[in-house]
Structure prediction request, 206 residues.
Amino acid sequence: MHQLAARLRRLPPSCGPVRLVGVDGHAGSGKSTFAERLAQALGGAPVLHLDDIASHDELFAWTPRLMAEVIEPLRRGETAHYSPYDWRTRRFAPPRPLPPAPVVLMEGVGAGRRALRPYLARLLWMEMPPEEAWARGRARDGEEQREFWDGWVQAELRHVAEDPSRPHADALVRQLGEGYEVLPGPAARSGPDHGVTHREDPPSMW
Prediction:
C-alpha cells in the first residue's frame, strides 16, 4: 500500500492543487475499506465517500451537486463543503469540510464517470465480478435493505451501461487473502507510473 501511495504523491495535481484519485467498482466490492487503508498510507488523506453525495432520489444523478460543492472549490484551491446524505433518515446533514490536500481520495460507484475523469490524477477500479460484489453488499446490509438492493442493482446496471468506468481505469485492484494486488488497467500507458504489477503490504504491516 505504501508503494502505491508513494506513486500517487508523485503525480502532478489534477484538480487545482489536488491530486484527485478515484476509487470505483461495483457496490460491495470493497471500495470504502481499500480507500480508508490507502488514505492511512498517504498519512491521513481526506476521503470523499460518494454514498454521502448520492441519495434515494439521486442514486446517480448527483454530478451537478458534486461539481458545485466539491470539484469547483478544490479547483480554486479552497476547502470544499458538502452535505452528507443520511440514508436512514433520508435527509442531508449539515455541511462537512473537505480540504484541498495534496491527495484526496474519492470512492464510490461512479467515481470514474465521464464528467469526473478530467479532474482525476488516477482512476483505480476494484476488480470483482458484479454478482460477487452485490452478494457481499447484500450480506453486509442485511434483510432490511433487500428492497433497496433490488432497486440499486438495476440502477447500477443502467449506469454502467451508459457511463462505464472500468475501461478508463489506470489500475485494477484485486483483494487478496492479505492485502491487495494492483495491476495495470485498461487505460494504462507505458511508463514508470503504469505497467507495474505489485502486491501491496498485508494489513498487518500497514
Notes: The longest helix spans residues 146-162. Confidence is low (pLDDT under 50) at residues 190-198, 200-206.
